[in-house]
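ok so i was messing around last nite and threw this chain in just to see what happens. nothing serious, just curious
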Amino acid sequence: MRTLPMATTPFQHLSSSPPFLSSLRFPTSSFASSLTGFTSSRRLALFHLGTAIPQSELLGGKTLKLFRMEGNMLEAGTAGNMAQAAVSEGNVLEWAKTDKRRMLHVVYRVGNLDKTMKFYTECLGMKLLRRRDIPEERYANAFLGFGPEDSHFVVELTYNYGVDKIDIGTGFGHFGIAVEDVAKTVDLVKAKGGKVTREPGPVKGGKTVIAFVEDPDGYKFELLEREPTPEPLCQVMLRVGNLDRSIKFYEKAFGMELLRKRDNPEYKYTIAMMGYGPEDKSAVLELTYNYGVMEYDKGNGYAQIAIGTDDVYKTAEAIRLCGGKITREPGPLPVINTKITACLDPDGWKSVFVDNADFLKELE
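result:
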């Protein structure tokens, strides 16, 4: 997909309501004003960005009681409409679990595109898949990975003209790359002048051999020793302030599966692996909670993960229902007409969902 320049104004906010909410009607304005959270535009506060009332509460006995106002009864049909909306909510969330989704690429800024591409191709074994220079918008980007974009998770590097230093912040953790021989890869990185921050050896509390290296901008890569895999670029690690909240959000809103969760009290952190397939065959999102740390500085380097979907409109509905914030309403991008929607998770990490069919057309 065409990436908008990183330094420009964020996606414009557009006003739109989930389609199934249009059936909700309230007979008088006095009733609407008497209920906290309802708006004159028929957008219910329970579906506003950042809020969500559980379905059990929506269908509870108190919710479905008829309200008295000025001697009149609320139309009996309202209760049925509310129940229908709740059923639609359940359908949307269930659909998110069966949608055809895949992590497409991860986007982040770099200070020197040529230097970074050289490191990724010569030290990490990636291939340059495509590169675009957009001088009129003062940015360039490059896609690199271990296989074609239509079947592999790849990186999208973005360089904004004149921005040579990147602030990675403290929230982003690392990318993970599966290699057959960690020690051999580390030797290659050293020979090319790369920085090794953790020598090869077993992971703490486990047997998997790992090492850590840094690219020219300081982004960390964890090298994991594994058998050959169809998806060598296998992890994106982000730190979160409430792990259980994040797991619930990614399961319901994103349709991801909790692959495993491991607590490490000795080192005061817990991790959860989330994804759309097994770790040894697909890219996963590694969420890390450090005991007692609720907030992180995100810097200006890491941008977002792009995920494929068969319906960006339903995806946006599911995200809203789970308390996520939509930062770009679902719809086609100008000129190229690729349909996308963008959102923030509870910690403010951004993701963009891209229509699967439109994405494949871009690659033609």
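not much to say yet. The longest strand covers residues 102-109.
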